[in-house]
């Protein structure tokens, strides 16, 4: 198009957040993202001509899924859903990401890739996977500079962007996403990588549990596994999504305690001892299940305690793993299991561990000696940590209190009812002597876009000194020196 | 501080087929736009290889439609198109009164309605063009969706369904703001009805199909009307082509068209008879319309068909769109304010049928069979308890309870679901714009443009649109600093 171009000063950037569930993209000069698409796509392959078509748009994917399930299949066309992120919430399908970015630029932003700087939000990778982190960064650089010739790129870990955009140097970012639940402590603008804690018990895990609960999982191993990937995608983005928003609830304390409390109350109230079937935790909630395939409708009645039991899985995933989702079955053996199986950690343990680790790590890495006069002076109060010196104990305390004063709750799955209160309670049980302040955006849509908004804010800072913006020339220069 | 006069305001609503234009608003009421011009421009290339654009056809001129499905596909041509609109309006005013530019038309602001698919680059380029080439002093780009919502007295939360010729735009609005990432386009529009009709009535040509669609006898029937009508709509076989041949055996439209005058007279007589009966269209077996050439064509039940597929597709997509919103209270608010615009919505019964489909597809109510089952169970329970209380002499507290229930109405309240819309309805169309009421609400987006233009351009502050001053300071990106 040969018309006078708008001024090309780099005041406008493209911001892309590849999340494990959805990818959010837009320009930094408007407050709303231009597009939100799934971090998965459909590849339609014509078996005869070998032509491939990629579908990224949310609504088109939904249409494809429905069409696939309603009509008789066209045998010559093979359809599959592919994901971009692995089960650890890390990007792995680089070919797919390249295709997706191409789509975003061409169809959604409708701009030239070489024209605007790009800020990409990336996941945090723990310290034990340094090699992996390097690899992932390298892939991003290759994609941006070599394939798409983007002029300037800035990769920022999303928890950092979220903390900065709230004006915080230090924070504990609790991100409950689709594939992973991650706790990231940030102190003085630095992510404490040693203390980053991650579990797989997040949104997708809940989806699976809900499907089990609603008996949607088909045990029959169909020869056509391919059809199922579309069906599962459709279900988790329609029915399950509906269900999750409305029915999965989290109690403010451990469900067992909650239940006991209710039972006590009930026995006190009902002098005769008869159980009222429709009050308290036994209260029934109705869900109209609409089958995305057959369009049949069915009312599903769930008791309140069942709703809570599903939400409880975030904090205590074990019942879900054992396949016994029923409360009554695991009343006795729950607490024991958590201690024996170390890799099955609910969000509460995850947070406590992260906070403890972050506070200790920092004293050693920051190199503050125990002789520090100020430190001694400040640490008059009793310290819990006997092993470290008095001064570092103070720092530990300060670190913990800084983190707990800045707990940021984010991620799609954190939108479940009651999550915030439960997180506060879980932390206060582990750290009773500290003040806790949480930050959870009440505008639900905003919380979903929090990382992306963080990225936008990073672009709109008066100077870009804060971030590591790398230009294409710098990248190629550094490659040559290698 | 610039104050704009009402009769200086220029409003342009470009669409894929035609563009609506109005120059000057009136004080008392909002009139239907004066001009509806085809969105087309002709291009030729001179010896130097430069493109020259013309508003009219001519030798070696290539017709260009700059907008397709709402998208600008040729930005340069579109800008030239805007220029021609502007210049010809100025010329017209100049011809009317050569001096008018000395005093009345000194300061013309433009309100341009834009589709959600226009890119940032395109909108910045248009801004650049409007200020640099057209030398206008004020510009506002108003999304079509907001035009629609403002025409309905500024709805806070709603979903705009804008049915075009080959596409349907679905745009949710939350808190007076269009949700960009959920704005989407379905690649089916009014022309899909033509496609279906063409299959049902292969003997008619494209123009006749179009005429039929626009004629008053073309309707979408409600369930009640369907039941009252002479046709069996519930039997799927009758809609298939096989059975249609039987219909044609009774009455071959093509033969009548070809047979000439006599048949037409018969038709006219028949129609007169029908009119005497003064039955509504829906209860007539046949009805006639006049095509472009004045031929009368008689149509059977096909005049009530052709819209179902489009309605089904739109309904499904609207459901997906609204379901993507995270906030359920907003979802509910949107379901209560569905806005259907575009000229396809003028088909009698179309809006109602679409609403009906939305209700069928998305309203969360207890399925009828489940309710019946529940009522049955309840009734049996009551009977059982009655028997019990009759036989046993010791009446406990619980039995008493059941007794009162049994004597009460055997009515069961519907289950209350915690999720989903419990009400789906159309937003109310404005009644107090008499000119628009007469015209119909297909182009109602333009009315929204008028309302907004009147408010922002005559407002004492210039915060809501891009002024020349702002443009000079920030360049084309100034449009992003204007929040409306």
Helix content class of chain B: 40-55%
CATH architecture of the largest domain in chain B: 2-Layer Sandwich
Number of strands of chain A: 17
Described by the principal axes of the CA atoms, the overall outline of chain B is globular
CATH superfamily of the largest domain in chain B: ATPase, nucleotide binding domain
Unreliable spans of chain A: 1-9, 324-340, 365-388
Number of strands of chain B: 18
How are the strands of the biggest sheet of chain A laid out side by side? 3-2-1-7-8-17
CATH topology of the largest domain in chain B: Nucleotidyltransferase, domain 5
Structural class of chain B: alpha+beta
Mean residue pLDDT of chain A: 79
Q: State the low-pLDDT regions of chain B, or none.
A: 236-251, 393-409
The separation of the N and C termini of chain B measures: 19 Å
What's the CATH first level of the largest domain in chain B? Alpha Beta
Main β sheet profile of chain A: 6 strands, mixed
The most extensive contact between chains is: A-B, 47 and 44 residues
Helical coverage of chain A, percent range = 40-55%
CATH architecture of the domain at 14-165 and 449-481 in chain A: 2-Layer Sandwich
Provide the structure class of chain A: alpha+beta
Number of helices of chain B: 19
GO molecular function (chain B): structural molecule activity
InterPro entries (chain B): Actin, ATPase_NBD
Family (chain B): Belongs to the actin family.
Protein name (chain B): Actin-like protein ARP9
